Amino acid sequence: MTTDGAARADTFPKLLLRNAEKFSDCPAMREKDLGIWQSWSWAEVLDEVRVFALGLKKMGLKRGETIAIVGDNRPRLYWTFIAAQSLGAIPVPVYQDAVAEEMAFVLKHAKIKFVLAEDQEQVDKVLSLSDKVKSIKEIIFDDDRGLKDYGHGHIRSFEDVQALGRAELDKSGGEAWLKEIAKGKGSDISVILYTSGTTGDSKGVQLTGEGCINAAADTVEFDKLTENDVALAYLPLAWVGDHYLNFAQGMVAGFCLACPESPDTIQEDLREIGPTFYFAPPRVFETLLTQIQIRMEDASRFKRWLYRYFMDVASRYGEDILDGKQVPLSGRLLYALGGFIVYGPLMNRLGFSRVRVAYTAGEAIGPDLFQYYRSLGLNLKQLYGQTEAFLYVTAQPDGEIYADTVGPPVPGVDLRIARNGEVQFKSPGMFTGYFHDKAKTSATLTKDGYVKTGDAGLLDRETGHLKIIDRANDVGKLKDGTLFAPKYIENKLKFYPNIKEVVAFGDKRDFCTVLLNIDIVAVGNWAERNDVIYGSYQELAAHPEVYKILEGHVDEMNRSLAGEPDVAGSQVRRFLILHKELDADDGELTRTQKVRRSFIAARYKPLLKALYDGSKSCKISTEVTFEDGSKGSITGDVKIVDMKPYPAEMSKEAAE
Amino acid sequence: MNATANKKANGKAEAMLSAENVSLSFGGVKAIRDVSFDVRKGEIRAIIGPNGAGKTSMLNVINGFYHPQEGTITFKGEKRSEMRPHIAAKQGIARTFQNVALFKGMTTLDNIMSGRTLKMERNAFWQALHVGPAREEELKHREFVEEIIDFLEIQAIRRQPVGKLPYGLQKRVELGRALAMEPDLLLLDEPMAGMNLEEKEDMSRFVIDVNEQFGTTVALIEHDMAVVMDLSDRVVVLDHGQLIADGTPDQVQNNQDVIDAYLGVSH
User: Fold this and answer.
1) What confidence tier does A620 reach under pLDDT thresholds 50, 70, 90?
2) Partners of residue A626 in chain B, C-beta under 8 Å
3) Of A128, A215, A230, A402, which is the most buried if we count CB atoms within 10 A?
4) Domain match, B87 and B107 both
5) Residue A342's pLDDT is what?
6) How far is A108 from A386, CA to CA, in rounded Å?
7) In a domain, A346, yes or no
8) Are residues B150 and A34, on separate chains, in Cβ contact within 8 Å?
9) How far apart are CA A410 and CA A282, in angstroms?
10) What is the pLDDT of residue A46?
């Protein structure tokens, strides 16, 4: 239904004009303000964007120039994308929690002239960089709190810019603006998204309007999204996932985008809005499950029994019912009863009651975790994508869900596996190159124009679905030649609620070892129930009882590895619990919360050495960066535990 | 940044509250001896001093909880001798406590709403009926309270009982309740006590924002010297119930008596 319109509109401003006409009174955006949900129709959004764009023009934003957008998901920040695009300028969203240095790199690299900052915190951050980034001319802020005294010529509020535009509109009408939009071509750069930098400095991925819209139109049709759908925008603006799933799909399908009241209220807002389309990285599903499990531990004995009984029913029949397979009548009846007593209220609590399509991506999701949500009746699917592809490469169609694959290529995507096992693709939304970085662009593209993903994968022979094993560079071998896929071990361990983060080592070494981070919520709750007193993360992490619990988890995982001949040799022989939580501010995680293994290996060198030289403990001092950028250090003595490996089943030699 | 410059500029404003020759004793113990100082309109004024210097007693005198045996308190040009806390509240003085004093079983929203009690025109009966003008009035007050919630960034705990909240957040809710009174003078008794660095920074930001955005005059007691020096426009130093210094943070910091009082004198 939307493809006809989308085919004509090849830029987002043109799409906005279409939507304002086609869906004029349908809600386009919602935001909770002072505890009440406010909404804007498409026609109203058009008006807001128009006057803001005219204001920007008056201030001197020109075709081809860049404007940075820094902040949480707010309607005005989304409007800025379209307003800038309507003038032919290029929006560059920046991760709002980036520390000043990271932000300076992006602002400088993208030659930013205008900055739209959400609030005082971001304005201050940008101001502190103005010495380093000389190109910045104007700063516009959304929330004026604490900014009243900043009022000098080059820092102004969103309203002030709109007032400029309003005056312009009254004087000379909106014709000129429509002409500007008409000048825009589908092949123009629509947005530059900086990658989070899993493997080093971030790169500016350039995407065209036409590419974005074509890709979004395909998946909107794939998942049958319409103007009646609702999504909650809570993912970082600078991430391709938000730009694609919420912004681009919202523009193409005309669905309503709701912005949460604050980053802390997302769970509440989800429940109130009841989105029909939902995306979350596995990490979010993991956290939710941990919370559910903790709350169930605290529930009364009868409720615990009910929960256990019906979750058992769900795991037997839930997925089959969801996939429309044959299920005995008694199973259906029990499941319906469970829906009434357990699943319904639980889904409502999580805000999933109305979700029609839910996706997860970004990292491998534990099969048990995946099945848990699906058995509750959530139509959760996996997709595999990249910023360079404008997200989608593969996605699971309804009814063809396997926990260990990420689905077949989506319509329009050409996928192949290179000889070295690397996944390569061509897609409609494919990027046109990295901004100001020809060398990296040509390193990423093959000679015949395919994008190299850097992920190792294989196509399932029966279903044709793609399976991702690990990053192509990360898959290694132990000294004795056993296959070592660190992600595989990490994901297995991370499924335990007590474990938050895992970093596995083993490539070119004698055996496999892991560094662990405990989950302070789950373990803290255990401590509370067992009268264990602790003053900090460090103290809790070093507690002997906590070590004992995690030892149990590692042991259990070793036993399950022993059952898989390919990886049985990479059982964990030694582990330790880190004395501090891995943190993106310290560079240990990327902004999208993926571990940077090589960085961690360098930073905790003494610990790694101790893991392999047989010592029982190791002293370590680590520098940490606080949220305000100041630095401190954490010193501690970390205990190392030896594990006994299980003999590999169906393997010729029993280890030791 | 330039906000501080602004504040200094209007530093010569009129006194909102002045204490003259105030003395207070409990039986034989002299808690405050002949102390005089003033709080100017629109400033952040800190009262500091070592343990037992009489800081909280001074706050209680201003608040009308204690009655000084000698001396007078003038608030907004009105001299007073006998004073009660509820009258002080009506006149526009709001305070927070050293140990959080909230209704633990009530939600954040209700706690802050309770700060609006004095502003309600309809009586409890009408409020309970929740119809017509009483309803309209409540909606108006609710909007004000929501603005405070937004201001203090506590949307996520709007509906949670405060007893379950961490200490730092309870302090914030308490500040919210004091703000709900739309006070002319806000008294804060150790707003940062027991907080970690990050919570302290947040709280400092809120105090500065309250002062700037609503123009509320603030008098605060605080132990953390770094916080005091950053926040306040002028500082009063008490020691053993006596005023030993009064001036800008810089002046006070370099005052020999103050250094002696804090670090002790070598004999």
Assistant:
1) confident
2) 197-198
3) A215
4) no
5) 93
6) 24
7) yes
8) yes
9) 21
10) 95
